[in-house]
Automatic annotation (TrEMBL):
Entry GO CC: endomembrane system
Membrane topology of the entry: Multi-pass membrane protein
Regions crossing the membrane: 27-49, 80-103
Highest taxon of source: Bacteria
Protein name: CASTOR/POLLUX/SYM8 ion channel conserved domain-containing protein
Main location: membrane
Keyword tags: Ion transport, Membrane, Transmembrane, Transmembrane helix, Transport
Keyword Nucleotidyltransferase: no
Keyword Thylakoid carried by entry: no
Amino acid sequence: MKFLRRGIELVRFQLEQFIVRGTLSRLIVIALAMVLIAVVAGLIAYAVLPRADYGDRGAAMWWAFLRLTDSGYLGDDEGVWLRTISTTLTVLGVVLFVGALIATMTQWLDDTIETLEAGYTPIAKNDHLLILGWNNRTAEMVEQLLVAEGRVARFLRARGAKRLTVVVLAQKVSPALTAELRDVLGRRYRRRQIILRSGSALRTEHLKRVDYAHAGAIVLPAAEFDAGGAPDERTIKTLMSAASASDDVEPADLPLIVAEIFDADLLETARQAYPGPAEIIGTAEIIARLIVQNTRYPGLAEVYNELLAGHDQADANRLFVPEPTSAQIGQPLSMLAGCYPTAILIGVARGGRFFALYDDDDLVVEAGDRLALIARGYDDCEPAGEPARLAARDSAPVAAPHATIRSRRVLVLGWNQKLPSLLKEFDSLTGEHTTIDVCSLLPIAEREALLAQRGIDIQHLALTHHEFVVTSYAQLSRLDLVAYDTVILVASDWLGSAEAADARLLLSDLVVKRALSAVGAKPTLIVETMDEDNVSLFEDPQAECLVSPVIQSNLLTQVALRRELHWVIEDIFGAHGAEVAMRPAVAPGASDYEASFDELAARAAAAGEILLGTLHDSSRGWQADLNPIDRGAKRRLTAADRLVVIVSEPASA
């Protein structure tokens, strides 16, 4: 009995293993069961009641099989025994042939549809735009790609493609991801234009699933809320996987990859990981410099938000890098500044570098260069008229840009992956003295270890760490809040999501304003928020908001469409090179006056600077007027106005 029970268990286990293999195995089991029932029932019928209808055993088995598969034969049988066997066969047929078969096929169809919807099947596309990874910025990036119609059209035309297809490789595709895309894109959502696939960018077979080798460009964003998971390591591993899986492809034929790196110390390492064309963007460095410059020049957030995050505003100015016309090739760059009545020439991109206008009066435009302009649309970048300078260069020494405070105290509330770059940028201002207090619940020893890990040695900065919850009014009130010139609120990426980070940020904002109001302090308040929808919640003439995810997404997507943009952005908004700065529109002690944008631009050109527009400090906060539509119209300038300029040398030099 023991051996019989063991044998039954082994047979049952093997049968179970065979059934769960798949649909074909289940169909085989059902077919074998039907054959077995038909054979047994036929033999019983033949033995009990031989009939002329089945003169031999084979015919009796066929008779049983027909009753098993078709209940219509039930009425043709006569006799109690025959009808009993026939009825039993019909019931078993309904269970096996109809029930089990339909259930098996339905399950197969459901599994097939689920597999297709889950995105496990490979695609076959050419010149698609591939985004590797899903995070809080992915839907924003897809929207920015679809909105950039002009750049997309030129991107497609350069590759001979007709329509943009965006492919996203997410860890696991789900209806929630599709719903998020629908919410963000609205009427722009097109199922045929946006393809989701499940997989990991770290695995070569999953990269092949999205046909990465035939992509027009690949965007590789870092995980924003994964401070403890080494996002840069995964980015570099993905770059290496993409390179190793294409051993049969020449490096020059590999698709362009635009990758995001948080740790500036790993930028060069990332560039070496991928032999093909690549633009490795240190977004943490760029955001850090924007915040630092905003600290030095209050009001610049308005400029940054328009130039780097104004993709959804029809009248916003943006950066463009068109090719020079044949007539412009061979001309000195400074002679082209007066050719653009509705755009502002800021320099030229060449061979991975950016040369600002007026850097070198002898710089000549060459074939293959890209002119860098600020305009509202690509059509505005068309030159008009003969080459001409805006003004003759003044040989008099130029005063430093208007930094309102040369010695400042800054309070930073919160900690995220950009903080090391922020402290490094502050420390680079050798011509200024800055005292910074950093408050966060993150242990001080861990912060210092992170700074040491990134090779950041603070030398010119007076840095003090405080360890407490930034939403604690009692602890915040113990600080000398009146002494601070600027308070910076940063979103903590260790909370796990943009929603949680902004919820904590909003609470911190209320606590900070309460604490500042209690002592009568009115520092500049700079807020780095994670969601564009929350900007209105921080509305305050005293506060300036930078939506860093939108800026980061815009950098990645626009560089993917036109890689030369990175060279311009890296220089103007990065850690080195030219910078956006401000000058007082009215000198101290001087009277108000009237002037047009063209007149102001000519004065700036004489000083070797590029005028972008003006900023006005009103009761509603800073108001920017960049590249005005009517550049000849005069407006009154007062002490509350600032001139926004690009200077070739950093003010801290």
